[in-house]
Amino acid sequence: MTTPEHDPGCQARKDDFFEAAPVGLVVLGPGGRVVAANRRAEAIFDYPAGGLVGRTAAEMFVNAADAPTGGEVCPVELVARRHTDETFPAEVVAGPVHDGCVVCAVRDLSGVKQEEHTLRARARQQALVAELGRRALTGIDLGQLMDEAVRVVAADLGVEYANLLELLPDGRTAFRAGVGWRDGLVGGETAEVTAGTPAGRVILDQAPVLTADLRTDDRFPALSVSREHGVAGSLTVPLYGQARPLGVLGVHTATVRRFSEADVHFVQAVANVVATAIERHRDEERLRERQMVRAEQMAAIGQVAAGVAHELRNPLTSVKGLVQVNLREAVARGLPAEDLRVIEHEVRRMERTLQTFLDFARPPRPDRRRLDLTDVVERVFVLVGGRARKQGVALRFARAEGPAWADGDRDQLQQLVLNLVLNALDAMPHGGVVEADIRPPRDGHVELLVRDTGPGVAPHILPKVFETFVSSKETGIGLGLPVSKQIAEDHGGSLAAYNLPAGGACFALRLPAPE
Q1: Alpha-carbon gap, residue 488 to 101, rounded angstroms
Q2: Superfamily per CATH, domain 369-512
Q3: Nearest Cα to Cα of residue 485 among 512, 457, 510, 458
Q4: Cα separation of 409 and 19, whole Å?
Q5: Closest CA to 271 of 249, 296, 304
Q6: DSSP code of 444?
Q7: CA distance 310 to 314
Q8: CATH number at 286-361
Q9: pLDDT per residue over 257-305, tens digit each?
């Protein structure tokens, strides 16, 4: 009877399994030398057919002392050595076979480790881009953001050089930020845009440019600065703008290097953050220029308005005095006086309008003293209480816990809050709620919110609600809110407006809280 060990068919099947195994199989004899290895193991260790037989574990593994002996169940990670002396990470599982031999299953972990490295690098780069974007949104100086951008890409990609070039209106490029370049180049160098440089080609084509070795790339003959620094490998991406190119961001090495697609995505993501910041900075500059022009225009209008208001106020005072005298006489004689009351009312309204013009044209300097905003709001609610009751409007006050201290001019701040509450009442002629909410100090500021349940500010008015002569009211002249905003800014604070999701408007006043 033939036993399985001596059955030729069974032995053949074992040999077939040994060769067809999806992992490298190496059999070590009692002396620690390889007595058999399948084709997969020879490929992993880069040996020719039969080349592994006779090799020792020390020749196959750098840390052979840590190799399993056959009693371990869990896999062990070792540093393996190929025939060319190249090392690679390997996973080894060992098990005993007959006659004191040990069979080792070997798996090359190079691909797994590379994938893990790629995932970690991608996560790290995403975090870097997110942090740079957060810094841009917090209002960091544009020049500082550019410096951080080139440092981030240079450090993460391990390159010697990085540069950010901004495209100027005249078509030249300015060297705004850089890493690794000679002194005097960053911040002071400008250059013409030509297709003979990677930066010029990127600006012309609005697409990334990669080259493994600039020194042998015939596309870019005009490379004086790059040649001066010995640049070889290069990756340059565009700074995309809404209307026109904004510049380029590049990374460069002194050795031949083929940048990967992941490298392109990372550098482009950083470039996009910088491009967005440049666009916002330019928009803000244009806005400031328009505001300066408008301020000059309004100053001229204010001077004229102040002169006109001053000239009109004196005769109005005389008219009002005569009307009041005749009104008292008519009342004393029992004569009809309603027409005189209407005239007096209209004269007073004209005086208030003229005073508003004067306040806008020549706002008084604030007389700052320590005050509690709670007292200011309570005083305003007392002043408007009668009108609110007539309109069926409820006045609510959400007080802060304890005093809400601020340094300011009591009369001016009372005028500001009164303007906001009167606007809210104007928006609710048939009833509603006006709520004043004082928030405790945060970020060095105390905040007062004035909310109403009216229709809110019209969408076409909201973006320019603080501009002069902008009003949604038929009888409004559009000076109350500009004066209020000016008062807030004169106190070192701010005044903002927005509509509430459930309806109504909210005006947010922020004032510096005293230390």
Answers
A1: 88
A2: Histidine kinase-like ATPase, C-terminal domain (3.30.565.10)
A3: 510
A4: 92
A5: 249
A6: T
A7: 7
A8: 1.10.287
A9: 999 999 999 999 999 999 999 999 888 888 788 777 766 766 666 666 6
